[in-house]
Design brief:
about 170 residues, alpha+beta, 5 strands, binds FE2/S2 (inorganic) cluster
């Protein structure tokens, strides 16, 4: 094994840890740092349960090496509710019943935060009709949310209320 000593900045706190260079960010978060809100579903980049934010952009942490995340600001689901105060999107998921078992929910919520920032920056998706530079920019409707969140699977099928929670949060921003 080849290992490294790295510093991971997670939810605004630095953590110095020794890792195998092949260790995933997901395993480092869960097993080394105790951030068990980040879930391991498939461990193959297919379900989105392990989604976290790296410098505000969403990534699947099971396909990200911990050593590659050094120097970035990492936000997990725990970091969205510092001192227990829910972020608006978390509050909307609770109020609108955007989950059943909750296993996919941390990934859904981190993904929603990243997705809303992408949309606010004018990034189009595969279903954006008008991608011309002079166009109005993508309107965030249910179809856009479904497409942009399609990397986050929910085995309980809570999709209708997930979409409602994201739309309501985006509209209130
Ligand atoms: Fe990472 Fe499924 S656990 S995408
Ligand atoms: Fe159960 Fe999504 S709420 S997997």
């Amino acid at each position: 094994m080849t290992g490294s000593e790295i510093t991971l900045r997670v939810n605004a706190e630095d953590h110095r840890i020794a890792v195998d260079n092949r260790r995933t960010l997901l395993d480092a978060l869960r097993e080394d740092l105790g951030c068990t809100g980040t879930k391991k579903g498939c461990d193959h980049g297919q379900c989105g349960a392990c989604t976290v934010l790296l410098d505000g952009r969403r990534v699947v942490s099971c396909l990200t090496l911990a050593v590659a995340a050094e120097g970035a600001s990492i936000t997990t689901i725990e970091g969205l509710a510092p001192e227990g105060e829910l972020a608006p999107v978390q509050e909307a998921f609770v109020r609108l019943d955007g989950f059943q078992c909750g296993f996919c929910t941390p990934g859904q919520i981190c993904s929603a935060v990243g997705m809303m920032a992408e949309h606010a920056a004018g990034w189009p998706s595969a279903v954006t009709a008008d991608v011309s530079p002079d166009g109005p920019g993508p309107r965030l409707d249910a179809g856009e949310v479904r497409e942009r969140m399609s990397g986050n699977l929910c085995r309980c099928g809570a999709y209708p209320n997930i979409v409602r929670a994201v739309l309501e949060t985006a509209a209130a921003r």
